[in-house]
User: Fold this.
Amino acid sequence: MEQVKALIVYASMTGCNEEIAFLLSKEFEKLNIKTEVAEVDEASVKEFLNKDICVVCTYSYESYGEILPEEMLDFYDDLEQLDLRGKVFGVLGSGQDFYTEFCGAVDRFDKQFPKTGATKGSEPFKIDWDIETPEDEEKLRLFAKNIYDKCLELKAVLVAKE
Assistant:
């Protein structure tokens, strides 16, 4: 079987999500997934078309009723236009639990991806500020494994249909 390919697109104001994106890429690489990481300003949603696994790592920003970070707005809107059937997605990100909507941007992307036809690989992983504990690290490992397992399951189904 061809090596599984993943793209992690992130937005980071404080550096936390950049770190989280690279920690996730290391977990994917341990599973033999060829992984690219890109900051949202340097990525296009169309890059997901060439990948098996599509991940967004974002922070949430409450400002004038908006939850999505400004740099994620176009990416979010463009995502809905893609046909990602046969792909697996995951969404994660950091936030602060004192906000009205904890990790609201994570929830928004988790609802946007299914409109593309992509298959959810794992429940969203919401991190309070940063990955700091062994429990957080284990949750990240499980998030990566769930996505990988769902990808293998989906590939097996698609091969069986051929």
